[in-house]
Amino acid sequence: MLPCTRSSIRAGNAIGTFFIELAKQDMRKWFINLPDEDLAYFPEGTDHFDDYVEAVEWAQDFAALNRRMMMTNVIRALRGQIAKPFDAELEAVNCHHNYVRRENHFGQNVLVTRKGAVRAAKGTMGIIPGSMGAKSFIVRGLGNVESFESCSHGAGRVMSRTQAKKLVSLDEHIADTAGVECRKDESVIDETPRAYKPIEAVMAAQADLVEIVHALKQVVCVKG
Ligand SMILES: Nc1nc2c(ncn2[C@@H]2O[C@H](COP(=O)(O)O)[C@@H](O)[C@H]2O)c(=O)[nH]1
Ligand SMILES: [Mn+2]
C-alpha cells in the first residue's frame, strides 16, 4: 500500500493566509470588535464567504490531483525496478484533512471544519498515518454522531517543530527510524517519530470512531 500525503500544503497555506487577512480587514471595515483578531470570520452569504469556500474546494481538488500524480509516478518507478510484471489494482482511499464541508448533524445543516481530522462517516474508508517510524492505519468509519462523524488525521504532535529540532538528537532519530528506509539527517528532525504521540494509544482512544481494517508497517518513507 502506498499512502501519499501533504499534497497542497503550500497552496493551502497561501489561501489560508490571504483569507485570514481579508477577514481581519472586513472586521475592521464593519466595526466588529472581537476579543482576538484571530477570530475574524466571513458571515455566510457574503461574497468573501463564497470566495473562501470556492478557494478551499479548489485546493482540495488540486491536492487530490497531486496525490493521483504521485501514485502514478510511484507505480511507474516501481515498474522500472521490478522485473516481474505486476498489476496495480488501485483502490484509492481519498482522505482530506483541514477542510470545510456542508453536512447535516443533529437535524441541522451546518458547516463542519475538520482541522487535523478526517471524515469517519459509517463505512467511509480513511488513512491515519503514524509518523516516519510508526505504523499507519487504513480505517473504516463508524459514523459516531458525537464526533460529528470525524476521527483524528494522525498521531498529532507532542512537540512543535522548533522544540523537536532542539530536543531530539540525530542519534535518537536514527534509532527511532531503524528498519525504515528514509532520510536520516538534521533537516527532517522536525518530523522525527518522537515529535508525535504514540499512534497505538491514539488509535485506542478513538476505537469508538473507527475500526481498523489494515495496520501498515512502514518500509520506505519519502519526504520531499
Ligand atoms: N506514515 C507517516 N506519517 C506521518 C509522517 N509525518 C507525519 N505523519 C503523521 O501524519 C499526521 C499528520 O501530519 P501533518 O504533517 O499533516 O500534521 C501526523 O500527526 C503524524 O501522525 C510520515 O513521514 N509518515
Ligand atoms: Mn496536517
TrEMBL record:
Reactions that this protein is recorded to catalyse: a 3'-end 3'-phospho-ribonucleotide-RNA + a 5'-end dephospho-ribonucleoside-RNA + GTP = a ribonucleotidyl-ribonucleotide-RNA + GMP + diphosphate
A Pfam family = RtcB
Q: Which cofactor does it need?
A: Mn(2+)
Look at the named UniProt entry and state the broad enzyme category this protein falls under.
ligase
Q: Which keywords are on file for this protein?
A: GTP-binding, Ligase, Manganese, Metal-binding, Nucleotide-binding, RNA repair
Please give the SUPFAM superfamilies that the UniProt record associates with this protein: Hypothetical protein PH1602
Query: Which positions are tagged coiled coil?
Result: none
Q: What is its EC number?
A: 6.5.1.8
Q: Which PANTHER family did the record assign?
A: RNA-SPLICING LIGASE RTCB
Q: Provide the protein name.
A: 3'-phosphate/5'-hydroxy nucleic acid ligase
Output the lineage of the source organism.
Bacteria, Pseudomonadati, Pseudomonadota, Alphaproteobacteria, Sphingomonadales
